[in-house]
């Protein structure tokens, strides 16, 4: 049948179906007596034999085949049209083409090639049965274990905290938990709380990505943070990103309508997720949380996320009162990584490529003279300003940055002050380095986002900042951080160090360098110390 149909094509058309080199090769080795060419009948047979699969499965060729049917053959193949030769019109050919696109097997039967269809689809089926399917929003094994534990715990516990090291995927793990909670009921509402625009923006975009892969229905995401003017009315399902300062402002607003809508939201929310949960017991933030989780009529469940489940660092054997309050606030329910055979979860994450191996290095300079005690108890503003202007200190920072730039590193610098950040960026630019400064005082949200995007694309090599890039920021190519801001907060130190610690499995690096300008503050030497400090604190609390 196929050969008969192809006989309606010209020789040139038939030749167009075959590779020119192959035709010439066939002629060269052929015993044909023809003068260096195949005749039309031979070409039709060759095309029918070599391209039959394509005329079944290739839509373009299949359509061309139908379009070139002689009217007599068209009537024979498509008797359902009940036509005679003078009644066959272009509209009938188009109808046949549309039908064949939807009924490939039936069409193959009409042109006597059903066996080709069956053998090909049978082969595809057998191959597909052993095909590997990769999830679009996967979790690593340790994240799966944590997600499973949290979901089980939330069935009978009202509050729980996830403790994962910086860079280990707290947000992705939480989004899986959030998605599961929303799938449970169309009436569930999740409120994601954070205190900074960068964290809120990250949560907003991450939920879009997660729900598009994990969701079971259409949902709505609401952004109530920064300068957004999203109304609180009508939120009875979906995902809400709430900026803590924005919610505090609404809560204190004199408008009775706003207060009513806020109360309605409090009654609708079924799960609260608090990002950077070590801040949860700050009085104003705690007030907002309790509006949702400590109500008489209905209380939402609470999930905290942190890399550092503690508020301050103390080298005293007695843990700080604030840390105890935080532990109590989450009812001493904490889920963290359990890695048998490893001294620290950090060791496991580094060995398996989830985190980069951090090389902690000191930047010493002449003139250092401030202790952790003085920085903590004296307020530190004048001292920090003096450090920002110290010539020897700044030379050390600049020179080390230039060394790393020569190695092709992507670098984030944490400066002492806003002006210090600007000064360092300009000094580096004068050395021919593509550098920029970013802070919340001089940059608009748009300019911050633009600079961050440039850095992610490696259009900027060094990004200097003051109190902006500690969290809610993901640039896996970063392999160097320079911590030039003295502090007594291991929480903040860990967040800064973590900017460079994305491992190769997250598109990052095998190793990274963490430089700390040493102002006689020796406490901050190892990310393991930071992690274990609070892990020990929670263990003690849980035994009480």
Automatic annotation (TrEMBL):
Q: Which domain of life does this protein belong to? A: Bacteria
A Gene Ontology CC term for this entry?
Answer: cytosol
Q: Which GO terms describe its molecular function?
A: ATP binding; DNA binding; helicase activity; hydrolase activity
Q: Which residues form a coiled coil?
A: none
What positions does the domain Helicase C-terminal occupy?
A: 397-544
Q: Does the keyword ATP-binding apply?
A: yes
Pfam family for this entry, one:
Helicase_C
The record's annotation in InterPro entries points to: Helicase/UvrB_N, Helicase_ATP-bd, Helicase_C-like, Helicase_Restrict-Modif_Enz, P-loop_NTPase
Q: Report the residue ranges that make up the Helicase ATP-binding domain in this protein.
A: 151-327
Keywords per UniProt: ATP-binding, Helicase, Hydrolase, Nucleotide-binding
Task: Indicate what this protein is called per its UniProt record.
Answer: DEAD/DEAH box helicase
Q: Which organism is it from?
A: Pontibacterium sinense
């Amino acid at each position: 049948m196929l050969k008969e149909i192809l006989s309606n094509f010209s020789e040139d058309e038939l030749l167009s179906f075959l590779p020119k080199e192959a035709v010439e090769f066939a002629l060269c080795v052929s015993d044909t007596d023809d003068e260096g060419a195949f005749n039309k009948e031979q070409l039709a047979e060759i095309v029918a034999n070599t391209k039959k699969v394509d005329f079944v499965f290739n839509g373009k060729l299949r359509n061309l085949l139908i379009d070139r049917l002689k009217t007599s053959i068209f009537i024979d193949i498509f008797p359902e049209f009940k036509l005679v030769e003078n009644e066959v019109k272009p509209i009938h050919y188009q109808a046949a083409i549309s039908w064949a696109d939807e009924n490939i097997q039936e069409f193959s039967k009409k042109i006597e090639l059903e066996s080709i269809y069956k053998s090909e689809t049978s082969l595809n089926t057998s191959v597909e049965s052993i095909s590997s399917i990769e999830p679009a929003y996967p979790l690593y094994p340790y994240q799966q274990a944590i997600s499973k534990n949290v979901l089980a715990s939330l069935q009978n516990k009202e509050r729980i905290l996830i403790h994962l090291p910086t860079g280990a995927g707290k947000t992705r793990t939480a989004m899986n938990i959030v998605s599961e909670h929303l799938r449970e009921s169309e009436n569930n509402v999740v409120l994601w709380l954070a205190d900074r625009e960068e964290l809120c923006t990250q949560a907003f975009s991450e939920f879009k990505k997660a729900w598009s892969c994990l969701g079971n229905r259409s949902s709505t995401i609401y952004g109530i943070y920064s300068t957004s003017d999203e109304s609180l009315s009508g939120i009875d399902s979906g995902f809400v990103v709430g900026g803590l300062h924005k919610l505090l402002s609404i809560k204190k607003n004199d408008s009775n309508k706003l207060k009513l809508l806020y109360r309605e939201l409090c009654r609708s929310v079924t799960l609260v997720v608090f990002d950077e949960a070590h801040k949860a017991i700050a009085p104003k933030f705690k007030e907002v949380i309790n509006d949702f989780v400590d109500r008489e009529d209905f209380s939402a469940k609470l999930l905290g996320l942190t890399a550092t489940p503690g508020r301050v660092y103390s080298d005293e054997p007695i843990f700080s009162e604030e840390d105890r309050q935080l532990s109590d606030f989450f009812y001493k329910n904490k889920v963290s990584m359990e890695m048998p055979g490893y001294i620290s979860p950090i060791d496991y994450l580094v060995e398996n490529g989830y985190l980069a191996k951090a090389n902690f290095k000191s930047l010493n300079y002449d003139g250092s003279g401030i202790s952790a005690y003085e920085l903590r108890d004296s307020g530190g503003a004048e001292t920090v300003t003096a450090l920002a202007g110290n010539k020897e200190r700044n030379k050390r920072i600049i020179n080390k940055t230039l060394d790393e730039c020569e190695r092709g590193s992507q670098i984030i610098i944490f400066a002492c002050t806003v002006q210090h950040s600007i000064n360092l960026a300009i000094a580096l630019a004068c050395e021919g380095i593509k550098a920029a400064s970013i802070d919340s005082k001089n940059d608009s949200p748009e300019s911050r986002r633009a600079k961050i995007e440039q850095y992610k694309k490696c259009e900027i090599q060094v990004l200097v900042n003051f109190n902006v890039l500690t969290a809610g920021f993901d640039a896996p190519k970063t392999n160097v951080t320079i911590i030039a801001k003295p502090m007594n907060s291991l929480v903040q130190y860990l967040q800064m160090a973590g900017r460079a610690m994305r491992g190769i499995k997250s598109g990052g690096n095998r190793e990274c360098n963490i430089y700390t300008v040493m102002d006689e503050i020796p406490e901050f030497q190892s990310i393991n110390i930071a992690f274990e400090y609070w892990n020990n604190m929670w263990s003690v609390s849980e035994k009480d």
